[in-house]
Amino acid sequence: MKKTPIDRKVVEKKIGESGLSSLGKASIREIVKLTNQIEKDTGEKFIRMEMGVPGLLAPSIGIEAEKKALDSGVASVYPNIEGYHDLKTETSRFIKLFLDVDVDPGGCVPTVGSLMAGIASFLVVNRNDASKEGTLFIDPGFPVHKQQVKILGHEYRSFDIYDFRGAKLRDKLESCLSTGKVSSILYSNPNNPAWICLTEEELSIIGELAMKYNVVVLEDLAYFGMDFRKNYSVPGQPPFQPTVAKYCDDYILMISSSKAFSYAGQRIGMLVMSDHLFNRRYPDLLRYYTSDIFGHAMIFGAIYALTAGVTHSTQVGFAALLKSVNDGDYNFLEVVKEYGRKAEIMKKMFIRNGFRIVYDTDIDEPIADGFYFTIAYPGMGGAELLEELLCYGISAISLDITGSKRTEGLRACVSLIPREMFPVLEQRLIRFREDHKIE
Predict the structure, then answer these.
(1) How far apart are CA 228 and CA 238, in angstroms?
(2) What is the rounded distance in angstroms from the CA atom of residue 343 to the CA atom of residue 252?
(3) 60-326 has which CATH code?
(4) Which helix (H) or strand (E) holds 147?
(5) Could you tell me the maximum CA-CA distance found in the chain, to the nearest angstrom?
(6) Is 363:221 a contact under the CB 8 Å cutoff?
(7) What is the pLDDT of residues 64-111, one digit of tens each?
(8) Which of 52, 105, 338, 383 could hold 88 in an S-S bridge, CB 3.0 to 4.6 Å?
């Protein structure tokens, strides 16, 4: 047995103690815990690619606004359940300036991160029609969204979009929606974990069929504008971040502060309902809520029950940050381009050492460089590759837990790897290649 940079016996021992039946099925947080334990026992620092944690400093604009708000006494006052007025107004402005879509501030509601926006959406959207069952996930996707619908007892369907890009998406999507059982569609754009970006043609297909089959679209924009192949950073000027909102009436946009705004620790996002959906009546909502008006059920039913409001000072801070972005004073995307630059370098390292990019194109052009990329190694399944990379001081997660059919692959996140660790990554990959000669 070849000696590896990380003692294989320690890796195997910790995997055994973890109780995990398969690394390929392990959640992100389980891989985090396992890697922490191996690091502790070996004293070796890992290349940590398993968790999508932002790696940039939070903007001082938001922090200073929060400090001022705390000094003014907001910590003693409950925030309005509908959201801080200025935050709702600036969110509406942001949607207009960066998506070219009009939404009333009333439908812009703060949540404790966009993950909470997801579960709140499921609580209302998947209960608006008693004849329907639940969500269609356009995969691969964030595994916790499926965990949410499972704990709510909702049914779901899913498919991997890789083989259904462009015009091919229509027939596949229609085959799912024509069952009449789908109440909502969820996808992320840019995509976590594959970093694919849906085209205007694909978004128009989703919007058109959602209208045809009376389905609400949940668009996860956690990585807003981070397809760095185009410049989406100038307020009020094209190109605008692509969105299904241009193609249907009933949608919810989930805007996260974590990645694009580097404000992850404050746990705030925005749930944005279209005006049409906000005011729409669904009699079946009365089974669970006091009103059949969608927006009322969302705010005073689901969100009230989940949090009774997002931290007051955090709302003030995020409002100040959005105002600076909207006014053109702060270019939020210029800062996070560092993720794309790091991804470009890291992808080349992996490819030089025998790996391939699993989700490699957006139909007919190379995938963008961004927060994530996907890797595979010839002759290895995802679980085997993950365990083997742990022996070389590299952690990631299996694509198997994301709904991907490319179970030989892993998702790699670039955010937590400082550039000074790049030579270490290169050395470990060279060693991996030498120890795993490709036939």
Answers:
(1) 14
(2) 30
(3) 3.40.640.10
(4) helix 143-152
(5) 68
(6) no
(7) 999 999 999 999 999 999 999 999 999 999 999 999 999 999 999 999
(8) 105
Tell me the fold of 8-56+333-435. Aspartate Aminotransferase, domain 1 (3.90.1150)
Domain boundaries, the chain: 8-56+333-435, 60-326
Which residue from 166, 280, 152, 271 is spatially nearest to 215, judged by alpha carbons? 280
Residue 367 backbone phi and psi in degrees, to 5: -60, 150
SS3 27: coil
Q: How far apart are CA 276 and CA 250, in angstroms?
A: 6
CA gap 401, 192 in Å, rounded: 12
The amino acid at residue 70 is L
How is residue 204 written in tokens? 């128009």
| Cβ atoms of residues 382 and 398 within 8 Å | yes
Q: Is 33 helix (H, G, I), strand (E, B) or coil?
A: helix
* Owner of token pair 């991804």: 343
Cα 69 to Cα 318: distance, rounded to the nearest angstrom:
12
Q: Can you tell me the distance from the alpha carbon of 264 to that of 56, in angstroms, rounded to the nearest whole number?
A: 10
Q: Mind listing the pLDDT tens digit for each residue in 226-277?
A: 999 999 999 999 999 999 999 999 999 999 999 999 999 999 999 999 999 9
pLDDT tens across 148-187, in order? 999 999 999 999 999 999 999 999 999 999 999 999 999 9
- Exposure letters 28-37 (e unless 16+ CB within 10 A, then b): bebbbebbeb
Judge contact between 280 and 252, C-beta under 8 A: no
- Going by pLDDT thresholds of 50, 70 and 90, the confidence category of residue 407 is confident
Output the average pLDDT for the chain: 96
Report the alpha-carbon distance of residue 336 to residue 57 in Å, rounded.
Answer: 10
> What pLDDT shows up at residue 439?
61
Task: State how far the alpha carbon of 263 is from the alpha carbons of 59, 63, 336, in Å.
Answer: 7, 9, 12
- Binning pLDDT at 50, 70 and 90, where does residue 1 land? low
CA angle, residues 130, 135, 141, in degrees to nearest 5? 170
